[in-house]
């Protein structure tokens, strides 16, 4: 009889335990459900602005943007990659020799990948020698070093040098142009198309100020070690000395690039950049009427950007706990959330105190969680206008808790719901 009671009690306990586990699993699945229509179902948000586009920072400035004499221009803070202001940034124009920024970008890729060496010599082709426009005065079938060709293309804006470099990377200009268009799309230059490596006029060879700013920022982030070529004031080759056409190198010591361009149809163009302290600003100016206007207006925009905007370092180590979130079913119940990379934010001077943070993220956060896992977005706004949006990531991994810890959190979440 005692044996029968023991068996009965044991079966009753097993039945109750099975029911409890089933109930827990049911609650867990109901609390962890994800909607097929919204992959981030369960978003914790105080704004619902995650799809709202960022605005130029000047839109929340008390100062008007300057009137600039050119067809199109854009000014960007390189640290934060935020647009400060613009005028007709998506107007399609001929880039002229600004094309050589992309040409150099791909040549520098080849050098860093060890496919080219700056000290190696290559042969000047007949095609390069016959190229019209600005030249470094190469001679056909003669050897010339990659380093000399880079100076000829960048300092002297030599079309002949550009073609030899393209041929050295890809074998011929057409193959190199294919790489240019592919890289442009990767960078995000959606309004650009290239048909040559020099910038010689072609109705299909077009870009915009916005696209050139994307290219230039990528260039400065990826190939800053080659920037010394762009601040070189002159270069002598074949007994001929030619000055850098970027006159800002003489008028402002903080300017260290980037490239000039001119054709009859494109007008006078300049992509300029300056480093003052730890801040770098980029200006793309297209379609000025004279070389003097191109120089003066570019410098005016650079000065305006440095004087009227601040760029703040956000979420440095001392403030790493400012974005803390609750974690469920993990070995730890809190975690820090951060952007992946060091974060800079540009704001109008005097308005840093007006910045508000907007967080939209998955909630609840259920372990396991993994370092750099994207769980939402972080936005910065002034006057309810979005200045910048970045992905919000897990700062460090958190493993799942044991069975007791998970059950405790499941029950607590169930009661909170």
Automatic annotation (TrEMBL):
Domain Peptidase S11 D-Ala-D-Ala carboxypeptidase A C-terminal, first and last residues per copy: 309-400
Reaction equation(s) it catalyzes: Preferential cleavage: (Ac)2-L-Lys-D-Ala-|-D-Ala. Also transpeptidation of peptidyl-alanyl moieties that are N-acyl substituents of D-alanine
EC number assigned by the record: 3.4.16.4
Organism this protein belongs to: Candidatus Kinetoplastidibacterium stringomonadis TCC290E
Protein name in UniProt: serine-type D-Ala-D-Ala carboxypeptidase
GO BP terms, alphabetized: cell wall organization; peptidoglycan biosynthetic process; proteolysis; regulation of cell shape
One of the Pfam families matching this protein, by short name: Peptidase_S11
Record-annotated active site: 97, 100, 157
Known pathway: Cell wall biogenesis; peptidoglycan biosynthesis
Family: Belongs to the peptidase S11 family.
Superkingdom field: Bacteria
GO molecular function: serine-type D-Ala-D-Ala carboxypeptidase activity
Coiled-coil annotated residue ranges, if any: none
InterPro entries: Beta-lactam/transpept-like (IPR012338), Peniciliin-bd_prot_C_sf (IPR015956), Peptidase_S11 (IPR018044), Peptidase_S11_C (IPR012907), Peptidase_S11_C_sf (IPR037167), Peptidase_S11_N (IPR001967)
């Amino acid at each position: 009889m005692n044996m029968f009671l023991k068996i009965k009690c044991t079966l009753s306990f097993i039945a109750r335990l099975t029911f409890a586990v089933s109930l827990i699993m049911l609650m867990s699945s109901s609390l962890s459900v994800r909607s097929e229509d919204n992959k981030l179902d369960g978003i914790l948000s105080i704004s619902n602005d995650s799809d709202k586009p960022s605005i130029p920072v000047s839109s929340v400035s008390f100062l008007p943007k300057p009137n600039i004499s050119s067809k199109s221009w854009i000014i960007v803070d390189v640290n934060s990659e935020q647009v400060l202001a613009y005028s007709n940034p998506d107007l399609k124009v001929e880039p002229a020799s600004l094309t050589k920024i992309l040409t150099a970008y791909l040549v520098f890729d080849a050098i860093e990948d060890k496919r080219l060496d700056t000290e190696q010599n290559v042969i000047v082709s007949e095609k390069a020698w016959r190229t019209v426009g600005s030249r470094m005065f190469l001679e056909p079938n003669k050897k010339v070093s990659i380093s000399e060709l880079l100076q000829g293309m960048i300092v002297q804006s030599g079309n002949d040098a550009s073609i030899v470099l393209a041929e050295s990377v890809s074998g011929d200009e057409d193959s190199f142009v294919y790489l240019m268009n592919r890289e442009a799309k990767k960078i995000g230059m959606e309004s650009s198309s290239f048909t040559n490596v020099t910038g010689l006029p072609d109705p299909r060879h077009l870009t915009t100020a916005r696209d050139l700013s994307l290219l230039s920022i990528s260039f400065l982030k990826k190939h800053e070690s080659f920037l010394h070529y762009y601040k070189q004031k002159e270069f002598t080759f074949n007994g001929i000395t030619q000055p850098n056409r970027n006159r800002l190198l003489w008028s402002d010591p903080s300017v260290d690039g980037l490239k000039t361009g001119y054709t009859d149809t494109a007008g006078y163009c300049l992509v300029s950049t300056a480093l003052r302290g730890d801040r770098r600003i980029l200006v793309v100016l297209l379609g000025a009427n004279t070389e003097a206007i191109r120089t003066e207006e570019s410098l005016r925009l650079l000065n305006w950007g440095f004087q009227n905007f601040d760029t703040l370092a956000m979420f440095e180590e001392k403030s790493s706990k400012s974005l803390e979130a609750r974690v469920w079913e993990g070995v730890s119940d809190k975690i820090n959330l951060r952007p992946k990379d060091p974060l800079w934010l540009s704001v109008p001077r005097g308005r840093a105190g007006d910045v508000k943070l907007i967080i939209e993220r998955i909630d609840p956060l259920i372990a396991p969680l993994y370092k750099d896992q994207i769980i939402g977005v972080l936005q910065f706004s002034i006057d309810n206008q979005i200045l910048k949006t970045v992905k919000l990531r897990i700062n460090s991994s958190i493993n799942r808790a044991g069975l007791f810890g998970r059950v405790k959190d499941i029950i607590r979440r169930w009661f909170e719901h």
